[in-house]
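At this stage, I put together one protein's amino acid sequence and its backbone structure tokens, which the following lines show:
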Amino acid sequence: MDFTFDEQQTAFRKALRTFVDKEIVPVASEWERSGRYPTEIVDHMKAMGLFGITTPEEYGGIDLDKVSFTLVYEELARGWMGIAGIVGSHNLSCWMIAKHGTEEQKQSLLPKLSAGEWRTGVGLTEPGAGTDLQGIKTTAKRDGDHYVVNGAKTWITNARHANVLPVLVKTDSSATPPHKGMSLLLIDTSTEGFEVQRDMGKLGYKGTESCEITLENVRVPVDALLGGVEGRGLQQALSGLEIGRLNIAGRSVGIAQAAYDAALQYAKERTAFGQPIADFQAIQLKIADIATQLQAARLMTYWAASQADSGKRVDMEAGMAKYFASETAITASLEAMRIHGGYGYSTEFVVERLYRDAPLMAIGEGTNDIMRTVIAKSLVAGSSVIG
């Protein structure tokens, strides 16, 4: 049993940390408040190859192992969680194309996407369907060598910057059960009828856009059907979400780490009654709790990622990591705010941003209640064993 990084992972984490500390941390709070899009940071991430971390090398990517994959999101979220979202949705889409796409789709899309020359995201959620993806209303009706798509999607990350977007549709609305009639279409966002309507107002998760999209009589070539076979869209999407939960777990660890760092530094610098507040037992207990939960979340996340690297399905492991790490991020950010006292509520300190960013981690890629059911079903079915 080895809990250490190999030489390559260690060097990779060092490069990530240097980038985050130099390019992201100094500007994150100011840019978030002003609503400034982080173009320079995105360009730097392109140069580092971070838009191709799930793309095989033969298509221009760097195809990271899953532990290094989680490290990307941990380190980016430590600096600014919204930045992690930009490459998160993008690389999830690339992973689905690489795993499920036809050879023609891989060759035509992945080289541009992995270089960051083109951008993408994932179009699953609708105004009336989130957790229950089988309840989507967006349809794609065959018309000769095209599909005609009508519907709406919401909470779409990278919507304004995407060149191509995998969109979950119903190619057969009468199918029973519904998932047998669901497919993913790789839609060119410049197609007539594809419109980004508005950016959603958000508590946190700023730096990247989350948008509502409408599709009105959008004509999509038949060869844009992911994998070339109808009826596999939900399975393709869910397989991607399994990996996406490692992304969320990594981001959660990054938020919790940033909260811990801020709390510890402030406790050492802030004085009360003639001594640093870090000398008070009440503050020490909070710091100990944050640190312990953070390290547990980190180890669970790396464990789940290492299991994915072994080639096995990680429904339970990724679900556990996402569930525990996201709850840790919420608790850590709140406790860090309490250690800061009144200053924790001020926009002059980073903890208020962490406190706003953390709750999304308990919602994204499946709510934590759903994670608990995923974990339980794996255990009851005997596909996973504890102990």
